[in-house]
């Protein structure tokens, strides 16, 4: 299958190789949660809710010098094409939960909130490739909404390599093509890579290009997320009548 | 997460500080340099497809088994590969029995991705009948001792086990040509798996602000580190999988440096694995050849000769199983009868210590029964043995050991 048109250079969904899908972030979508956000990357739609910092539910898990961060990733049954019932806690979602938790832990200033717990729940409402990245972006927005101190914002984006072209932000068809898929998460201001996952075989020099492309994507998302947060803060300011 | 934090062995702050401060000057607590790998020992089991890898203090066992199953519907002509991890509670206090925890799942997934997504194994060659039966390869990884860097050790163990694994050959036959015939290992040589390249996982630990990197972290270093990165690479310099699940941020230039180092290490480990497997294979082949020669020799000899040979073999076996005491008792009859009282005592002392050294042999009722019967039926046992056994080494050895014991207890 031709993933990049050899004549026009367009991808299957009409994007150029370096184009990202349309992204949209919305803050405050779950009323009960301390912080919540919805994040869309094209047709991928993810919702995140943050509770905390609050008292540790299970005393044996309490950490005395920092906050305990927990994360649960799940996919809605209706999120994919075939409407299959997904068993809870399968290997894939366990791994993604771990990855998201550790990524968010890297930016949360956990030492400021000892003996407390922060819960992050992310759910995929619609899956069209790049769910991992969308979840991290949504979690960042939700954490910021909850007012949890962070040293930086984490943003994530994926990139692939199909038809000898590095492609930014793969959708489901490109993702399931079996080519390399690099998911990168960066600490935007510090310009450091905190999350990096890749599979499939790729020579080292091409890997560098693909990773750089993904990092550029992350930076673009970071800019957008900053805009969303700024807008939200302005609204809050306006409501308080300052 | 669950109970882990409660049960983790906590390191003292002083120790943590020490490890960190010493790392800043490129030193490690176990005396390695930052980019030195620990010693790798690869052992094989009696059966094929069993391996035990020791990386420093970390020990991982891996066992590969196969089974005929129905293939997945979307891949009717491909075999399946599944990796199961078992974090035994004996390996680390934070491991709990029961369902695999987060880190067990992560480890399994990283190894699985390295093997599967890089198409290291030829899955189509595992197909027997399209859409009906394919071979399902199951890799069981048991962590026996957690000395840090489980991913690398487990990955090597899995590769070695897969390399030595042989599956039985099977063909289609019968009246309608649809019947599956499984060939015995004696009839047809079992087949190895087709493995194109070896994806080797190399793990780095990140310390400080993400500027100190260390390869192959130990358990202690893992307690202090801010994050880790695993690069799965093959000896051609291709990247097969990367896993850096959060943790301290790292500059992308440092990542590329690490990739270079990982690539060199991967080539090094690949050659080690190949060397070990080659030695194992040649040893096995020569064993098989010996076995075959023996079989042929038995077949050409006459029936009564075989009987005699068997008798001799049985006797040798009995001798080997028979505890030394029995032999000695019979020896005492002619050799040690004139001994003085002190010497006699010393021998009994020697026997006493020996009971501890080779305890189980004395407890084996089977060998004891037989040897006593032998001793009674052949009163002049030593001489008899000499006649029967061409090389007298065994007998000489027993006499020597008796003397040795006597001397020991005297001096």
TrEMBL record, chain A:
SUPFAM superfamilies: Ribonuclease PH domain 2-like, Ribosomal protein S5 domain 2-like. Keywords: Cytoplasm, Exosome. Residues 20-149, 152-217 form the Exoribonuclease phosphorolytic domain. GO terms for molecular function: RNA binding. GO terms for biological process: nuclear mRNA surveillance; poly(A)-dependent snoRNA 3'-end processing; rRNA catabolic process; U4 snRNA 3'-end processing. One of its GO terms (cellular component) is nucleolus. InterPro entries: ExoRNase_PH_dom1, ExoRNase_PH_dom2, ExoRNase_PH_dom2_sf, PNPase/RNase_PH_dom_sf, Ribosomal_Su5_D2-typ_SF, RNase_PH. The keyword Transmembrane helix does not apply. It is found in: Cytoplasm; Nucleus, Nucleolus. Belongs to the RNase PH family. This is (wild Malaysian banana) hypothetical protein. It comes from Musa acuminata subsp. malaccensis.
Automatic annotation (TrEMBL), chain B:
Signal peptide: none annotated. It is found in: Cytoplasm; Nucleus. GO terms for molecular function: RNA binding. GO terms for biological process: RNA processing. GO terms for cellular component: cytoplasm; exosome (RNase complex); nucleus. Residues 37-168, 197-264 form the Exoribonuclease phosphorolytic domain. The keyword Cytoplasm applies. Keywords: Cytoplasm, Nucleus, RNA-binding. InterPro entries: ExoRNase_PH_dom1 (IPR001247), ExoRNase_PH_dom2 (IPR015847), ExoRNase_PH_dom2_sf (IPR036345), Exosome_comp_Rrp42_subfam (IPR050590), PNPase/RNase_PH_dom_sf (IPR027408), Ribosomal_Su5_D2-typ_SF (IPR020568), Rrp45 (IPR033100). Belongs to the RNase PH family. This is Protein ECERIFERUM 7.
